[in-house]
Structure prediction request, 184 residues.
Amino acid sequence: MTRPQTMIRAAWAVTFASFLAGCATNSYLDDPDVTGTIPDFASAQVPPPPGVSPDSCWVRDISPAEIQTVTRQIEVVPARIAEDGTILAPARFQTETAQEIVKEREELIFETPCPAVLTPAFIETLQRALDARGLLRAPITGTLDIPTRVAIRRYQTRQGLPSSLLSMQTARRLGLLATPRDQL
Prediction:
């Protein structure tokens, strides 16, 4: 094999490997349930609101606005039609495209399990619960990685909470935490 052939094959192999790596690491970005950024727990923490236990943990997340692009055909010049119904000149149309806000941006503040609860064993159980529902598309690692947070968002979005931060209500609904008697 000549040197140029070897260089071409090496370049092709590097390009192909880069393509595969991009597919593996960014496939969650193509998911329709995943929009906006995925915040980390530490940057999202907020003080508990008044009237709740000061030992509880709360987070703030932003649900991005949903925008829809609408394309319309607008008649610019009407058709000219003879008295006998023959079309003398067809109508002319112009394409108009506009973006409309379907849902406004929303600030979400909700209770979440505290960091001390988020042990590797707890996260493995969370991952198994999400995997059993067909939502986790990655191996069970015991870490709160991006695929796990994407799966959390998939689950919670269907429950009306579009966030990748685990809510206390979701943890209870998945059977990960006990529900206090006063909430039964």
